[in-house]
TrEMBL record:
It holds the Pfam family CPSase_L_D1. PROSITE patterns: ATP_GRASP (PS50975), CPSASE_1 (PS00866), CPSASE_2 (PS00867), PROKAR_LIPOPROTEIN (PS51257). This is carbamoyl-phosphate synthase (ammonia). Keywords: ATP-binding, Ligase, Nucleotide-binding, Repeat. The keyword Ligase applies. It is an enzyme of class 6 (ligase). The keyword Heme does not apply. It comes from the Bacteria. Its EC number is 6.3.4.16. Residues 133-328, 676-867 form the ATP-grasp domain. It catalyses: hydrogencarbonate + NH4(+) + 2 ATP = carbamoyl phosphate + 2 ADP + phosphate + 2 H(+). Belongs to the CarB family.
Length: 939
């Protein structure tokens, strides 16, 4: 059936600010869906309150509404635009819940709007635990014994009837919020209360816990002809009991028998067809008994999910793009396979490689948090790696995590206390995968590890083999490792840094040089979705160690953009936004734009965003070999946050050109001692400071600059490790702790300006001229990390004299640092005195916010300036903001109710929203301003 020609305008509902459980995977899905609809000549409007996303950029949609996700906002759009249909399946649970609320209020009916991509009744069936359970029974799909409860008494009765262990699943919640396992009768009352309060309908499912069973996910697509295809099968490395967002996952399934797989396929298709007459994407989760392969259904999500982004990147099949076209009436056989360009979209991808996803945690930001993983998701991001084997992909994923690991162990960070290791295996946290390897190294039998973790024996055997390989390697020296054995190590995912550590007396560069002598080089394979059965056209690659290289190097001028790796607190989606605009600007400037990144949730790793995508760890060895092969004009490190910046010194050492501000000047801004000397030379005020490398030095510095002092390490992002201390005892503890976690790092000690206001500026410099992008005034005082503070654009209470000083200092610093590109400066303001706290010559989290507020493509402009194809004089910049824009930080403390929620110098927010006000009399602003007054006047 051809597309529904009555649909000429579609509203896509976004997912709002990034929170744990609903992150930038929906930015990717929403962006892809919007572009897919625009290809069909459909006018696309988007509502989303998140300014840091590509989804809310004009390159994606015709009309962008940066408004709160409420029915009032929806109605405002429906009154302004002639909307024909709404697509609520690209914005996670937030969008679905808003769609239901609008439906209940009669908005869709009032404005004659079609809901496409899902049936509202289907949402109700899948989110209402009792309806879902009954539906599964009706269609012959197995479910765990369970009972619904709407009151405390009903829950107690259900528990008595089913017996322990139990799982509590609240209705209509996201990422397992409010859910959990109950092993003992004594813990049930508190868990039941928690679940009932978490559910907006005060409803929970009390269900028998199938702990230790395997968990699988299937991603499906269905068209209006009721054709259904399975895009990807994903197996959880961790057994049931850990939220799939917190579990290591593998595609395709490694331990699934064909009989069980076929049964699971049939049940998934039956489930999708049973929940309503709609066309689009769907995610189904199953649990499988490892003893007899009995299958039970866990849940079904009739929307694009977190796993949809992973499945899209794993297979190269653009799920959101095709789902959007199915939603407007197309059938699968009428659409083109985006990879081969010659076959239809009515096919199921075949993988001749293995995908491993590892979640990224930020427990360091939540001191005292319970790190044990369970039904409530706690991960803040994830990485994905591609290899020819499971173990190669697993090691590459470990290298991608940005946790200073060189792979799965063999890097000097192993745990050696057997009691701690076994406790970690029994009570899983984010490090359990590493502790499994540590257990094998200490000689713990495989069966003992399997019994305590319930992880499938096949996976454990793969990890155990690494220990045998490492024992073998220690028999050699670098110059006599047999070539075949060296090749085996590389095929098993070992980094040169790991081999260096295992040998003990050679450097990473020595290992690199030796394997090059032996002719052991990475080759790059294309992600083609069909195991090379058909010729693929998509420039999407991963590395391995074989003979044939499928990445053909062109003779065009190239620019490599280094991505930001996994999302984490302090480095989030705003850097992916920056990278995407960097790619767009490089292409517009006539360069072949090449992306290196390992984050499956992001738009930058969409296979058609760059001219060439390397889905690889942003890890030195991988980046180096890509650069050596592609020979780019230069590398952009300024857009990918600290992940990319930390490569700058090694790039410089190899003579590789850094596009934009030089390494020397970026390093000058990071080195607090040298930077303060520069401020002194420029006659720019700054707090008294000192630098220390030991607790003794720190005590001396602190007493010289005067308490209170701000203590922080150099070269970190998001305020990592920062604290404010008021005496020698607290200072000593803080410094010892920092040196333990960040050995060899300089410790910066600044006099803390108590009761000061904080402000910041962002600017672009082309080497000569400086353009101030925007200046913001914070609501919270100095001492609270800028990422955790509400900020107002433009400043609302700073005097003209203060703002003039901020502008003057910004221009002085941009020129003194020879900035080419972006510069963020943070100020402390006390009375009419303005002090510079720090300067960051790179993209910051505030640039996307300012770009959206003023409606100016600042990253695009900055990239063209960095590339040297334009100067600032070439751009006519017109700002459109009338009134004020407010950046509101958003937190995920509900995931960690036990932690201290007090804000300080270390960032804790997971996302942000934008709000526009016309004037300072706005009630929302007046409430914020009263908080500022309270802060500043506090005694």
């Amino acid at each position: 059936m051809p597309r529904n020609t009555s649909i000429k305008s579609v509203l896509i509902i976004g997912s709002g600010p990034i929170v744990i459980g609903q992150a930038c995977e929906f930015d990717y899905s929403g962006s892809q869906a919007a572009l897919s609809l625009k290809e069909e000549g459909i006018t696309v409007s988007i509502i989303n309150s998140n300014p840091a996303t590509i989804m809310t950029d004009k390159v994606i949609a015709d009309h962008v509404y940066l408004l709160p996700l409420t029915c009032e906002s929806i109605e405002k759009i429906l009154q302004e635009q002639q909307i024909d249909a709404v697509l609520p399946t690209m914005g996670g649970q937030t969008a679905l819940n808003l769609c239901i609320e609008a439906s209940n209020l009669g908005l869709w009916e009032k404005y004659n709007i079609q809901v496409i991509g899902v049936d509202v009744a289907a949402i109700e069936k899948t989110e209402n635990r009792e309806e879902f359970r009954q539906l599964m029974i009706d269609i012959g799909v197995g479910v765990a014994p369970s009972k619904i409860a709407n009151s405390f008494l009903e829950g107690k009765e259900a528990a008595q009837e089913i017996g322990f262990p139990l799982v509590i699943r609240p209705s209509y919640t996201l990422a397992g919020t409010g859910g959990g396992f109950v092993h003992r009768k004594e813990d049930f009352d508190a868990a039941l209360n928690r679940g009932l309060h978490a559910s907006p309908t005060h409803e929970v499912l009390v269900e028998q816990a199938v702990l230790g069973w395997k968990e699988f996910e299937l991603e499906l697509l269905r068209d209006t002809n009721d054709n259904v295809i399975i895009i990807c099968t994903i197996e959880n490395f961790d057994p049931m009991g850990i939220h799939t967002g917190d579990s290591i996952t593998v595609a395709p399934g490694m331990t699934l028998s064909d009989k069980c797989y076929q049964d699971m396929r049939n049940q998934a298709i039956r489930m999708m067809r049973s929940i309503g007459n709609f066309a689009g994407g769907c995610n189904v989760q199953f649990s499988v008994n490892p003893e007899n392969e009995d299958i039970i259904a866990i849940e079904i999500n009739p929307r694009v999910s977190r796993s949809s982004a992973l499945a899209s990147k794993a297979t190269g099949y653009p799920i959101a793009k095709i789902a959007a076209k199915l939603a407007i009436g197309y059938n699968l056989d009428e659409l083109q396979n985006q990879i081969t360009k010659t076959t239809s979209a009515y096919f199921e991808p075949t993988l001749d490689y293995v995908i491993v996803k590892i979640p990224r945690f930020n427990f360091d930001k939540f001191k005292g948090a319970n790190k044990e993983l369970g039904l409530q998701m706690k991960a803040v991001g994830e990485v994905m790696a591609i290899g020819r084997t499971f173990i190669e992909a697993l090691q590459k994923a470990c290298q991608s995590l940005e946790t200073n690991r060189s792979g799965l162990g063999a890097d000097g960070r192993q745990l050696r206390n057997l009691e701690e290791i076994m406790d970690s295996l029994e009570h899983p946290s984010g490090d359990r995968i590493f502790h499994i390897k540590d257990a094998f190294e200490l000689g713990v039998p495989l069966e003992s590890i399997r019994k305590v973790t319930r992880i499938d024996k096949w996976f454990l055997l793969q990890i155990q083999e690494l220990v045998h390989l490492e024992t073998e390697l220690r028999r050699y020296q670098l110059n006599n490792i047999p070539r075949d054995f060296f090749l085996t190590l590389k095929q098993k995912g070992y980094s040169d840094a790991q081999i260096s550590w295992l040998l003990g007396n050679v450097s990473e560069d020595d290992v690199y040089a030796r394997r090059k002598e032996l002719g052991i080089n990475r080759v790059y394979k294309m992600v083609d979705t069909c195991a090379a059965e058909f010729s693929a056209q998509t420039p999407y690659y991963y590395s391995t160690f074989e003979e044939e290289n499928e990445s053909i190097v062109s003779d065009k001028k190239k620019i490599i953009v280094l991505g930001s790796g996994p999302n984490r607190i302090g480095q989030g989606i705003e850097f992916d936004y920056s990278c995407v605009h960097g790619l767009i600007a490089a292409k517009e400037s006539g360069f072949e734009a090449i992306m290196i990144n390992c984050n499956p949730e992001t738009v930058s790793t969409d296979f058609n965003m760059a001219d060439k995508l390397y889905f690889e760890p942003v890890f030195w060895e991988h980046v180096r070999e890509i650069i050596e092969m592609e020979k780019p004009e230069g590398v952009i490190v300024q857009l990918g946050g600290q992940t990319a910046l930390k490569m700058a010194e090694r790039l410089e050492a190899l003579g590789i050109r850094i596009i934009g501000t030089s390494f020397e000047n970026m390093d000058l801004a990071e080195d607090r001692g040298r930077f303060s000397d520069l401020l002194k030379e420029l006659e720019i005020p700054y707090p008294k400071y000192g630098v220390a490398t030991s607790a003794e030095e720190a005590l001396k510095v602190a007493n010289e600059v005067g308490y209170p002092v701000l203590v922080r390490p150099s070269y970190v992002l998001g305020g990592q490790g920062m604290s404010i201390v008021i005496n020698d005892e607290d200072l000593e503890k803080a410094v010892v702790n920092l040196l333990k976690n960040l050995p060899g790092n300089q410790i910066l000690i600044d006099h803390f300006l108590d009761r000061a206001e904080e402000a910041e500026s962002d600017s672009i410099c082309d080497g000569e001229d400086v353009h101030i992008i925007g200046m913001m005034e914070h609501i919270e005082p100095a001492g609270i990390h800028s990422g955790d503070s509400s900020a107002v654009l433009p400043p609302f209470s700073l005097s003209d004299a203060v703002q003039q000083k901020m502008e003057e200092y910004s221009i002085k610093l941009a020129k003194a640092l020879s900035v080419k590109g972006l510069l963020n400066i943070q100020f402390a303001v006390k009375g009419e005195n303005v002090y510079v706290i720090e300067a960051n010559p790179r993209a910051s989290r505030t640039v996307p916010f300012i770009a959206k507020a003023y409606d100016v493509p600042y990253i695009n402009i900055a990239t063209k300036v960095m590339l040297g194809v334009n100067t600032l004089k070439d751009f006519k910049i017109e700002r459109k903001l009338k009134g004020y824009a407010i950046k509101e930080p958003v937190f995920s403390f509900s995931k960690f109710p036990e932690v201290d929620k007090t804000l300080g110098p270390e960032m804790k927010s997971t996302g942000e929203a934008i709000r526009f006000i016309k004037d300072l009399q706005d009630p929302f602003f007046r409430e914020l301003y009263s908080q500022k007054s309270m802060f500043l006047n506090a005694q």
